[in-house]
Design goal:
alpha/beta; 13 helices; Rossmann fold; seven-stranded mixed β-sheet; Helicase, Ruva Protein, domain 3
Length: 412
């Protein structure tokens, strides 16, 4: 019997990282938000369509590390850990701004939408200061209703997905006459968007369309399918950016009232960048997600004024909101859990790194699914999982809990 702490680790297959798409109209602060979370410098400008090619980078979600429970200091393979706060990598994709009619190709919209095909989650950056119109042009602050942007993005995504469905609809109708199941045909058609067969079945059941032959569907039913696929398969949260500017907080509160089903987080991406730069220069001590910072060096009057503004913002919102938005997206909204591989007798890998890895798993995932995420061999030859805290043996169907530390025993 072998475990995942043995030299087989050299053959580990890395699972697909979570991919989060950053979307919205031009000039809302998408690239600023991307830079705030990834520290990847990108061109930022109030001009619409500053971003043409998507920006791709790595950001980090925060998990309470388990190392202190075992009296050790972890050595992450990827990400980092500060004061027991483990930062686990996820991928961010910042696509160019979308404008009304994007699904028809306006503003190169089809290309930008296609960049989002494999995203697990979308973060919609909304300028809640109301200082940009529907195409991202600068206008007097407070003269635009940010609620329009929420509706606009919903519509564009709905029509985009509907267009992909309709692209081969005649072919699907012919296949339906051969008694192929609706979920099989639609899942095949939509596989490029990352929609699984399980998601398609949930959508069809919700719409009572699973048994209705496709050749009998009406246009409204196709659109309902697209809309519900978007809601369940491309979940979206709203980052209410520029909430620190005039009208920003009031507009954020109005958005919460108007869209009670949305997960909305107030934030200032620009403030996050300011704090990270100050921390990098050792003027302050600041960890992403903190609700405050500690001054380390004497500053000039201009720097002091800037930090006073930051402090007032953080006192009001409990932080800049950027890291909170990312954490909330993964753990509060998607309900993902973090699982640490480890060994009962040894918490390090073959290179001596202690608790080197953390895996983000979907809610309801089982021990054998976790084994397969580490390496397909572990799932194929699974014997049991072992709870490293309690030494208890767990079966293949054990449902994982957030911050479990598990050893996988397998045969070969």
């Amino acid at each position: 019997m072998k475990s995942c702490t043995k030299p087989l680790r050299k053959k580990l297959l890395r699972s697909k990282s979570m991919l989060i798409g950053i979307v919205g109209k031009p000039s809302t602060g998408k690239s600023t938000f991307f830079e705030a979370l990834t520290a990847v410098p990108v061109e930022r400008s109030p001009r619409p369509f500053t971003t043409i090619k998507p920006n791709h980078g790595v950001a980090y979600v925060e998990v309470e590390c388990v190392d202190k429970e075992f009296g050790v200091q972890c050595n992450p393979r990827t990400g980092f850990c500060k004061n027991g706060r483990r930062f686990v990598p996820v991928e961010l994709l910042d696509v160019a701004g979308l404008v009304p009619g994007a699904h028809e190709g306006k503003g190169l919209g089809n290309k930008f939408l296609d960049d989002l095909r494999q995203a697990d989650l979308l973060i919609h950056i909304v300028d809640v200061s109301g200082s940009t119109n529907e195409v991202g042009e600068r206008i007097p602050m407070g003269s635009y209703d940010p609620a329009n942007d929420v509706r606009f993005l919903e519509n564009e995504l709905n029509y985009w997905i509907e267009g992909i469905l309709k692209r081969n609809w005649d072919k699907l109708k012919r296949e339906a006459k051969l008694n192929r199941k609706n979920e099989e045909m639609i899942a095949t058609q939509m596989a490029g968007l990352g929609f699984t067969k399980d998601v398609v079945i949930r959508v069809l059941n919700k719409l009572n369309l699973r048994e209705k032959p496709l050749f009998e569907w009406a246009e409204p039913e196709i659109f309902s399918l697209a809309k519900t696929l978007r809601e369940l398969g491309k979940p979206t949260i709203i980052a209410a950016n520029k909430c620190d500017l005039s009208n920003g907080y009031d507009n954020y509160m109005e958005l919460k009232k108007e869209f009670p089903d949305y997960f909305i987080v107030p934030c200032s991406a620009e403030a996050e960048i300011t704090l990270k730069n100050a921390a990098k220069a050792d003027f302050i001590e600041y960890i992403p997600g903190d609700g405050s910072f500690k001054t380390l060096k004497t500053m000039n009057s201009q720097q002091q004024n800037a930090m006073a503004i930051m402090k007032a913002l953080m006192d009001k919102f409990g932080g800049t909101g950027a890291q909170k938005c990312l954490n909330s997206a993964v753990f509060d909204f998607l309900k993902y859990i973090a699982i640490f591989p480890g060994g009962v007798s040894k918490l390090s890998d073959d290179q001596g790194r202690i608790l080197p890895d953390v895996f983000l798993m979907k809610p309801g995932s089982t021990a054998i699914q976790f084994a397969g995420t580490i390496h397909s061999t572990f799932a194929e030859n699974f014997i049991k999982a072992i709870d490293v805290r309690t030494k208890r043996a767990l079966g293949a169907d054990y449902v994982l809990k957030h911050r479990d530390v598990l050893e996988i025993a397998f045969k070969r």
